[in-house]
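Task: fold both queries, return tokens.
Query 1:
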Amino acid sequence: MSAWGRPRQTECARTGCSFPCCKSRRDETSRAPSKYCKKHTCAHFYITEEVPRCEKSKDPSDSVCPYHARCPIENCRKARIQIQVENPADELRFKRQKYCGDHTCLHEGCTNMRSTLGQGRMDFRPYCNDHVCHADGCTEKNTRPCGGWYCKSHKCTNPGCSNQAVDKCQYCEEHNQCETASCTNPKRPGKEFCITHLECETDGCHKLKESHSSHCSNHTCGERGCKTSSGNFKYCQEHRCGYQDCGEHRAVEGKFCPRHSCQRCGCQKQRCYRGMYCLTHTCTDHDCGDARDYGDFCENHYRGEYGRRIEERLDEDLRKMRIDIETKDLALEGQRQRLKELDEQVRRLQSARHPHGNGLPN
């Protein structure tokens, strides 16, 4: 025994683990033997890139010593992430990831340090350089391996392109050209055309076109698929009612809307101002708007007109009869006058034949 009550160091003591109360042998599997057994040797002792090797002991359930259990990021005082591992002896065993939870990439299964690309030296993004979007200041995940180094917001949306999109645009510089033929102007952010080819094509209007239309919302014809300007109406000239300033949709057949079309079945003409029918099918009586069902008149006016016509016909027949009678009377009077004249001539002839006679024989 030594003066301090400790046993003198023997050959067995020099080959034993230096951890207090541990009777295991030192680990001599590496080029340089450890002071501790396998259970008490820090994992950083075996990392040959680290010089000098770690000479601190560790807890048997952990993989590193207390010094190396701390996150290696400067000024970080948190412990590296600890993960339980399977152990055949049913003893609790853990291993450490490279960094603490604040500095480990959030991508599932990744243990790399979070990225500081384009930021301050101590400003970390949620993902590592392999998984974070490479656009300055972006904290979103990139689209690799199917996409590229940029997230969906910063990646060119042209199919098959993985380049970074131009600022406030959906396309990269290569694909950020107006899709109008022969136009090289840059696209408007979020659109497929430049501002020139996005403006409403109605004269004097500078509003943006509606999708799949050549005009803005104020000038797009309400007829589906129509690309003609509607002007100041809801529909273009081809699809709106032709009645004065009516802007309603015209009927499937005809040039007028149902309100301004003749209500006669099969008729496509414009109704007249005084009724529901066109001039051809409206009663011809003054200011009557009913349908012409009896010749030129509606039923009511036809009845009145029929009676009036009968009266007129009777009057006309009576007038003709009177004229006929007068004509015949005049003819009879002429005949009487002629007879008188002939009788007078006869008398004169008889007088000339018998100048001394006393007239015609008895």
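Query 1 returned. Query 2:
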Amino acid sequence: MSFSNTSETNKRYKILITKDLLPSSMERLQSAPDIELLRPENGSFSRTVLLQIIKGVDGILCAPKDKIDAELLDQAGPQLKVVSTHSVGYDHIDTNELRKRGIVLGFTPGVLTDATADIAIILILGAARRIRENIHAVLNREWNNWSFASSLGTQLTDKTIGIVGLGRIGIAITQRLQPFIGLNGKIIYTGNSDKPVAKELGALRVDFETLLRESDVISVSCTLNEKTREMFNYEAFKKMKKSVIFVNTARGGIVQQDDLVRALSEGLIGSVGLDVTTPEPLDSDHPLLKFQNVLVLPHIGTSTIETRTMMGNMSVDNVLAGVRELKLPSSLDL
């Protein structure tokens, strides 16, 4: 059995953590006198092992890759009080099942905004300036094959930026892009309602079709739900400019990935930057990875010391409060 019990037995609350956090956050769980902690010895639990050991736990601290569904909740048992995820997204959790069972859900909003927005900018600039192709040229000794027309990317100056989802992360991306587009650049966004901050940002709300047609850069930062699932399909890609820079730092499921491959094959998209895919990780022979104008990162939007520390501490705060039947500091209203 691939787990270890890291504190004395006969403790009041049993918490299962599916993947270790940073040491400072783990220390808080391991040193709590009223907590019995189940944790993986080898990085993470397989689904099979998780189902075997979860029975009787009072709290679950999970990662975005863990599927928290009826099967797992049934196996855990009726004493389960809280699920805490160290992410702002919760599409891996069946919230209807939690609500029916009276289980509270903790998440980590706000803390990952800056780190994720930074990655969006890296992907936008990297796609615009053909970074993958140019790194390949250096590594493969093609640097000398230079001409005046070699490796021509595009600047963001005076471009129209389309933001899909002007929430915390969308706002942070917009703020970072403004110096690049200059005074003659334009910010447009699409969403369910007008955002009060849009006027301050100089952003104009438009419908989805207009955003597809007019944007030179499209940055996706919306929530994955039934309305947004696979909203970027072949029909959407066909309506974009053929020079468009398309970047997704939200969730892989927002993009119909096979349609993206088709659109790239047909030359309908200028370049792509992805920090999220379906599935994660992608197989090394996945068609997306064969395109030199596609820059893929391994979902590192929150991968900074500062952000991961805050996310870990917030998720620990949530699970400890939940098992102790206290109000969660950061809970989702189910």
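Both queries returned. Flag for query 2: The mean pLDDT is 94.
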